[in-house]
């Protein structure tokens, strides 16, 4: 059973700030080790199943057929509206921009996509789950951008396995050096045209592979998943509305029930963390200062160890706002790098084409993800005009009415055309690594605050020439591959979406071996304050190519394990 | 920030449901009054209702063709013209036409809440352009023309060839897109004309397909 708290005098063993991908895992791991844990969430409670108010709603069951009124968007969702998953059936899981203002430095733009309720972005994520490899962990050291990751794949390998078994990751073993295999449930089917494209690309480009996408979906639940109360994925691809089958990983479906079962979990909802309470005499964080989300009353919570898992920018904002005589520029910031080296993945390059034939092929169900071309530039090459590389999501589909409605014509022929599936199409979308740069940063605005009295973040982040050249290459390579294998009507291009649009914001409280140039050590522990940990994306040294969330989970579990050992050894 | 360390008597409590209490939200609701009329605004603002219920208040009810009337945006004549274009674009076959299911009324409502003033004006201008084209070419109002002539006119405008421009083509395509969205997100369009898989049960990557069979009305994001 979960206890919900507002006022609490208890000194918990652990406080976890945040209840998303990272916070949910931290809470579960602490609870399962017998620690009395308080998970603090700034937003409201969202109960699994009960509060999925948009789930299962057909478009005609929504007053504006899934669209959101313009006036509501302008007033409350002026940034969140930019997210592909934002619609009338999901908007209640997105942050309220009216209440969550932030600034961007002059001449820059940033899309800060947020989910400020229990579960956080674990309710909204796209579920792609890939391990990082040593090519990713080595990249900073090799080309000098950013600081060397203080760990390597072998340090995380077993933790990846552990989280994957609990989460349930579908995919297929491929034995690729740049993309280690996970513990897999069966992959989603490839369509026949995808198999065709795969065989053609792999034949024409022997160093490139086209593989099943890897996602946190239960294609075939195992015992451990059924015990969590989760069921098989029904292929509705409406995950962001909430899934009562628990078929994709979220805090609600997976880590929260496991934490609750222990009896050690308390949750403080509607609790906006203002700052950490630092005791200079003992050099420890004692607890947190909270402002109530609704009535703005103030309270405090106390614990022996604090895990900050409030999302990349949320965590760094808390640290920056926790000042003291010893840490005038933010707690744990003796290095001065807190707030710096902000990154996001660049998704701006695309290519698509027609696939001739396969007229008698179709599919059933809405696969909640696609297939994937792992980074084929994982070996650095001085001949390339840019550093690092990109992966590509991909997939084939048959045009439906929403594509066909652009056809010429009126009347019965037009209606009959839209009734039937159209031609097969293939798409590619790049996901490129962004270099870590000091000047890409966040800081607290000197004057502007939010309604809870917390200084707004000012975000200053731009893609550099490296990312621009990389995306140009991705568009060219995408088109080149599709033309080479004989697809027709090949198109490609590069969009101009800014950082934040990838919704993989990373960095700003990076790990490193040297306390002079990093905030955290390889166990996500603050160099400066031993009982302070940050295990979400803020801790990343590089963005890598692959999606980060699986690595958030592995780092978190490893950090909790270490923290508990340190607690027991009385070193925290 | 001044942290008050005194003990407070606030009991353990769960979150309250989302309530519309502050001024900004009231102003938003009042803004809706411009579309609704003030009676409904009073009803909404005097009830503490959730965001979900507010959405319900916006719910649009389809009207039969016999009850065709002036809309929230469109005049009676514009509604008649739009209804006619809906029926021509997506006529009755084994399933009703777009006009039969009040796609014109849907468009009127949808534009009211989801389109900017500029977008609303553009659609009104497109209807005026079509009406003007009918007058120019046939010296008659559009709805007075024979079905053959109506279809011919729409087709010609869509070609964007003289005397029509590429802008005329783009504008009529935008109108068609609204009609198609209204039709294929309706229950009839999505689940009778097309196949609606509410709960597919899983993903099958290869099933056989025969020409003429319907595709899917169920999409992920619309």
Structural class of chain B: mainly alpha
Largest sheet of chain B: none
Extended strand count of chain B: 1
Provide the number of structural domains of chain A: 2
Work out the largest interface and the residue count of each chain: A-B, 83 and 83 residues
Total of helices of chain A:
12
Q: Quote the beta fraction of chain B.
A: under 5%
Number of strand elements of chain A: 20
Number of domains of chain B: 2
* Average pLDDT level of chain B: 82
Low-confidence stretches of chain B: 1-53
Structural shape of chain A = globular
Oligomer: heterodimer
What's the number of helices of chain B?
Answer: 9
**Amount of helix of chain A:** 10-25%
**Ends apart, CA distance between termini of chain A:** 29 Å
CATH class of the largest domain in chain A: Alpha Beta
Short description:
The complex is a heterodimer of chains A (572) and B (222). Chain A has 12 helices and 20 strands. With 572 residues, chain A is of the alpha/beta class.
Task: Write structural notes for this entry.
- The complex is a heterodimer of chains A (about 575) and B (about 220).
- The mean pLDDT of chain A is about 100.
- In chain A, strand 2 (about 10-15), helix 1 (about 20-30) and strand 3 (about 35-40) form a beta-alpha-beta unit.
- By secondary structure, chain A is α/β, with parallel strands linked by helices.
- Chain A has helices spanning about 20-30, 70-75, 135-145, 155-165, 190-205, 225, 250-260, 310-320, 400-405, 410-420, 465-485, 550-570; strands spanning about 5, 10-15, 35-40, 105, 170, 185, 210, 265-270, 270-280, 285-290, 300-310, 350-355, 360-365, 370-375, 390-400, 425-430, 440-450, 455-460, 490-495, 530-535.
- The two termini of chain A are about 30 Å apart.
- Chain A folds into two domains: about 5-55 and about 90-170 and about 250-345 and about 440-460 and about 505-570, FAD/NAD(P)-binding domain, CATH 3.50.50.60; about 175-215 and about 345-430 and about 465-495.
- Chain B is an all-alpha fold and about 220 residues long.
- Chain B is about 55% helix and about 0% strand.
- Chain B has nine helices and one strand.
- Chain B starts with about 20 loop residues before the first helix and ends in a 14-residue tail after the last strand.
- Chains A and B meet through helix 2, strand 11, strand 13 and helix 10 of A and helix 1, helix 3, helix 5, helix 7 and helix 8 of B.
- Strand 13 (about 360-365) of chain A pairs antiparallel with strand 1 (about 205-210) of chain B.
């Amino acid at each position: 059973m979960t206890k919900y708290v507002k006022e609490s005098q208890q000194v918990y063993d652990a406080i976890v700030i945040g209840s998303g991908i990272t916070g949910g895992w931290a809470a579960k791991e602490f609870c399962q080790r017998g620690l009395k844990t308080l998970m603090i969430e700034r937003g409201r409670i969202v109960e699994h199943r009960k509060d999925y108010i948009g789930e299962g709603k057909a478009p005609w069951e929504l007053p504006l057929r899934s669209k959101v009124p313009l006036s509501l968007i302008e007033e409350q969702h002026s940034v969140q509206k930019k997210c592909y998953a934002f619609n009338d059936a999901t908007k209640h899981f997105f942050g309220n921009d009216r209440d969550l203002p932030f600034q961007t430095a002059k001449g820059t733009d940033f899309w800060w996509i947020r989910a400020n309720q229990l579960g956080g972005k674990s309710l909204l994520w796209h579920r792609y789950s890939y391990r990082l490899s040593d090519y990713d962990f080595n990249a900073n050291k090799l080309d000098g951008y950013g600081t060397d990751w203080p760990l390597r794949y072998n340090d995380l390998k077993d933790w990846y396995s552990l989280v994957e078994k609990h989460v349930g990751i579908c995919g297929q073993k491929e034995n690729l050096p740049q993309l280690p295999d996970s513990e897999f449930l069966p992959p989603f089917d490839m369509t026949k045209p995808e198999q065709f494209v795969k065989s053609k690309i792999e034949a024409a480009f022997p160093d490139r592979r086209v593989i099943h996408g890897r996602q946190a979906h239960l294609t075939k639940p195992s015992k451990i998943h059924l015990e969590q109360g989760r069921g098989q994925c029904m292929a509705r691809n409406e995950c962001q509305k909430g899934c009562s089958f628990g078929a994709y990983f979220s805090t609600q479906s997976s880590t929260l029930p496991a934490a609750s079962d222990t009896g050690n979990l308390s949750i403080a909802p509607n609790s906006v963390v203002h700052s950490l309470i630092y005791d200079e005499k003992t050099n420890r964080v004692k607890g947190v200062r909270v402002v109530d989300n609704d009535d703005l009353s103030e309270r405090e919570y106390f614990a022996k160890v604090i895990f900050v898992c409030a999302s990349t920018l949320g965590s760094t904002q808390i640290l920056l706002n926790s000042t003291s005589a010893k840490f005038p520029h933010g707690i744990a910031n003796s290095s001065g790098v807190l707030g710096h080296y902000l990154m996001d993945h660049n998704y701006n390059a695309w290519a698509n084409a027609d696939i001739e034939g396969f007229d008698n092929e179709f599919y059933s169900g809405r696969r909640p993800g696609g297939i994937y071309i792992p980074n084929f530039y994982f070996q650095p090459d001085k001949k390339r005009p840019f550093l690092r590389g990109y992966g590509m999501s991909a997939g084939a589909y048959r045009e439906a009415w929403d594509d066909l409605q652009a056809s010429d014509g009126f009347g019965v022929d037009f209606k009959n055309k839209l009734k039937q599936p159209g031609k097969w199409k293939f798409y590619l979308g790049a996901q490129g690594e962004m270099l870590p740069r000091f000047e890409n940063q966040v800081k607290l605005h000197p004057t502007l605050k939010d309604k809870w009295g917390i200084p707004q973040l000012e975000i200053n982040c731009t893609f550099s020439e490296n990312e621009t050249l990389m995306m140009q290459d991705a568009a060219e390579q995408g088109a080149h591959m599709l033309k080479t294998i004989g697809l027709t009507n090949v198109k490609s291009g590069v969009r101009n979406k800014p950082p934040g649009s990838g919704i993989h914001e990373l960095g700003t409280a990076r790990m490193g071996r040297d306390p002079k140039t990093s905030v955290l050590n390889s166990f996500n522990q603050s160099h400066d304050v031993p009982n302070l940990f940050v295990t979400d994306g803020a801790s990343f040294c590089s963005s890598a190519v692959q999606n980060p969330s699986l690595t958030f989970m592995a780092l978190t579990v490893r950090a909790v394990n270490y923290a508990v050992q340190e607690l027991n050894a009385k070193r925290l | 920030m001044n942290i008050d360390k005194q003990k407070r008597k606030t009991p353990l409590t769960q979150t309250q449901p989302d309530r519309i209490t502050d001024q900004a939200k009231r102003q938003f609701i009042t803004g809706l009054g411009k579309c609704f009329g003030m009676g409904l605004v009073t009803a909404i603002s005097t009830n503490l209702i959730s965001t979900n219920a507010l959405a319900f208040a916006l719910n649009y009810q389809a009207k039969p063709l016999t009850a065709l009337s002036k809309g929230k945006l469109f005049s009676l004549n514009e509604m008649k013209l739009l209804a006619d274009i809906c029926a021509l674009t997506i006529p009755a076959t084994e399933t009703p036409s777009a006009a039969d299911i009040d796609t014109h009324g849907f468009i009127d409502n949808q534009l009211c809440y989801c389109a900017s003033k500029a977008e609303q004006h553009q659609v009104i201008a497109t209807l005026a352009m079509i009406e003007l084209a009918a007058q120019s070419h046939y010296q008659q109002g559009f709805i007075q023309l024979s079905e053959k002539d109506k279809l011919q006119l729409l087709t010609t405008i869509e070609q964007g060839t003289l005397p029509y421009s590429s802008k005329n083509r783009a504008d009529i395509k935008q109108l068609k897109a609204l009609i198609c969205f209204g039709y294929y997100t309706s229950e009839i369009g999505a689940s009778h004309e097309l196949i609606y898989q509410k709960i597919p049960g899983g993903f099958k990557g290869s099933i056989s397909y025969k020409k003429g069979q319907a595709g899917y009305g169920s999409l992920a994001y619309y």
